[in-house]
Every structure is written in C-alpha cells, then in structure tokens.
Amino acid sequence: MARQEKISKNLDWISVLIFIVCVVVGWLNIYAAIYNPENPLWIGDAGFFDTNAGKQLIWIGTTVLLIIAILVIDYRFYETTAFFIYGFSIFTLLAVLVVGAEIKGSHSWFRIGTFTVQPAEFAKMATALALAKYISTPMVNLSRFKDQFSVALIILIPPILTLISHETGVALVFAGFMILVYREGLPGIYPATFLSVIVLFVLALIFSSWQIFIGIIILMGLIVLIIPRYERKTRNLLLIVGVGISMGIFVTGVDWAVNNILQEHQRNRIKVLVDPDFDRKKTGYNVRQAKIAIGSGGLVGKGFLQGTQTKFDFVPEQSTDFIFCTVGEEEGFAGSLLVVGLFLGLLLRVIYLAERQKSRFARVYGYGVVSILFFHFMVNIGMTIGLMPVIGIPLPFFSYGGSSLWSFSILLFIFLKIDAHRTQILSRW
C-alpha cells in the first residue's frame, strides 16, 4: 500500500489530467461523428456497442486496466526489457505479413473477432524504448558514425517492415525520432539536410525544374558573397558547388520518383497538396470536405451534435483520421484552439519532465514520447486543413481506434511511471 501511495504522490497529475481531458473530449467527438439524428443511440441502447463510439468506450475501459498495470509494474522493468520489447515488436511486424488481415489495402492488422489490432502502432513505443536503452549505454556518442549507424538501424527496421505491409502513414511517423536523436547529440547537419530535402521536394512539386535551378544558382551565389573573403578557399567553393549540384540532381529526380516509385493514390495525394482543386470528386474530395466542415464552424461552432457536414457523412473517415473536422465544425475556432492548446500543453509538460530526469534512459525515452506525439499532432491536423498530404495517421487520444489509444497511452504512462521514480534512478551520463 505504501508503494502505491508513493506512486500516487509522485505521479505527474498535470499530464494525467490533460490525458483524461483529451480522451473524454475525443470520445465526445467520436460520438458526434457517428451520431444519427434519425436513430440516436446512447449507452445501453441496442446496437450502441456496435458503433465506433461504443467500441471506443470498450477500448477506453481496457486502457484504464493497461495504465493500472503499467503503474504497478516495477519502473526498472521497462529499461531492463527494452531490447526484448523491441525484438518482440519486430516479430509481430513480420508475423502480420503472414497471418495478418487486409483492411483498406493495408496488410497490417491482426483480427480478433470484431476487433482489430495494428502492431505497427506499438512499434513506435518499442522503438522509443530501444533508442533510450541504446543511447543511454555508457560510451555511446551520437557524434560518431558507428553509433549513428546503430541508431539509424534501430529506427529504420520497423518502418521498412511497415512499408512492406502497405502502411505508409505509420511508417512516416518514425521520422519524428529526428527530434530525439538531435537532442541527444546528433550533429546539426543531419536535421538540416533532412529539412532541406523536404523543402526541395515540395518546391520541385510546385515549380518547374529550370525555375528551381535558377533559384539554386542565386542561392549559391549569395552564400559565396556572404561568407568572409578569407573563407573563400578553393575547398569551400568546391563544397558549395557540390551542394548546389546535389540539390539540382535531387530536384531532377523528384519528378521521376513521383511518377515511377509512388503508387497512383500516393501521387494523387501529393498533387492534391500542391493543387487543392485537383480531382475534387475523388482524391481531393476528403480534404475539400474537411476544409468546408472546419470553416463552417466559425468562431464557436454549430454546437454539439449539430454538425451537418459530419452528420450526413460528407467527410470520409470522420471518426478516425479526420476527427479534427468534427471539432472544427461543432466547436468552432475556439474549440479547435482548445484542442491545439491541450496538445501543446502536454508536449511542453513532457519536455519539462524529460529535462528533469536523473537518468539518460528516462530523458531519452521522454523525448521519444514527444517525437511521436508531435509528429502525429502536426501531420493529422495539418492534413485536415490542407497543409500536409493525407497519409492516414490518427490524432492521439481523439481518433477512434483501439490500437492507437492503447499505444499512445502505454507510451505516455511508461514515461510517467519512470518519472514518478526519478529520485530512485541512478544517473548514467
């Protein structure tokens, strides 16, 4: 009993409160998304637990049990078994390729009765644990290529297996770990290169190659003019020219890659991002309707259960990937701002908790939590308002889905459990 009282005392209740609010508000929006005015169902009505709102209540109940189990288990268990959990996760990603069920073109689900579980969702948590375990190992230094390669291997194996099962959206989430490894000492050239590639990719979709070539030449010229004269050595000038040529080659390859590597539906999603009017009746339909739903909410929204875009199924996947549309339509700009504020508050709180840890393992894992939540938050909301391509990833704690709710809750509460015992963990730097 004394042990549990200590956990209750040291648990970060601010994070827990934000989590509870997100889950409750999320469920209310899932209910609003499936609400049918002609046949309203509520808890206890026949058929209610066949709806997404009813199933989500079951998932929430099981999530509470999972959280209790996480808080009861010894905090050292997560560090001790980190590689084992990661290995088991890799095994499930391999197993789902063989015995998994195919849903919406993705062969990445285990079907258990009427419920489905997606192991790729849990792979993110397992990878965060494995990264924390490896990076906290004495003598590991992310400025050395050997350690950089090992970290890259840990990060890349799960998304590669996830891509094989045709689950592109979840695979892209692992790019968020760039935040973690940069915080832990990865040289800035890597994130700078990563961001530059993204910017060049988007520019290559918007502008013609020759326009970008001219821009690259002007940029390289400005760099030469800005750097001090004593730095204009042959080696540095050749480096600048080499970077410019590499950028030009990359831009040239973007068009080929889009047309020859990506599948048709992926190409169309990128085209919708660049041109909102592209294929408005098919590929562009989701984003267009999402914008209409969010925009129609105005300042304070139409009111709970009053959203017309939501009620009449104008927005596809409205209780899963596009749940933010329900928030925007029924709760308006004020409600949307509240949801964004909740996520930012949780992210900032976890960063604060991570920075106060006494062990490197705990700190690294905390930044793993931040990396995953931030990527989901940024991309999911971004794709509903047309700023990001539609890649089909859930909004944490809001979107319908047992796998996502379980994985995000486990991810967060493992960290909160470790944080509750931070004074008992020996520092290992």
List the topology elements.
Elements: H1 2-10, H2 13-34, H3 52-72, H4 76-80, H5 82-99, E1 101-103, E2 106-112, E3 115-117, H6 119-135, H7 145-164, H8 168-173, H9 178-183, H10 189-206, H11 209-226, H12 234-260, H13 264-274, H14 285-296, H15 308-311, H16 323-355, H17 360-384, H18 402-420
Antiparallel strand pairs: 1-2, 2-3
Helix pairs in contact: 2-3, 2-16, 3-18, 5-6, 5-7, 6-7, 6-17, 6-18, 10-12, 11-12, 14-16, 16-17, 17-18
Report strand order across the widest sheet: 1-2-3
Helix percent band: 55-70%
Strand content: under 5%
**In DSSP terms, counting alpha (H) and pi (I) runs of 4 or more, how many helices?**
18
- How many structural domains are formed by the residues? 2
Sheet with the most strands, sense and barrel status:
3 strands, antiparallel
How much is the average pLDDT? 87
Query: What ranges have pLDDT less than 50 throughout 5 or more consecutive residues?
Result: none
The arrangement of helices and strands along the chain is HHHHHEEEHHHHHHHHHHHHH
Shape category: globular
Q: Could you give the count of β-strands?
A: 3
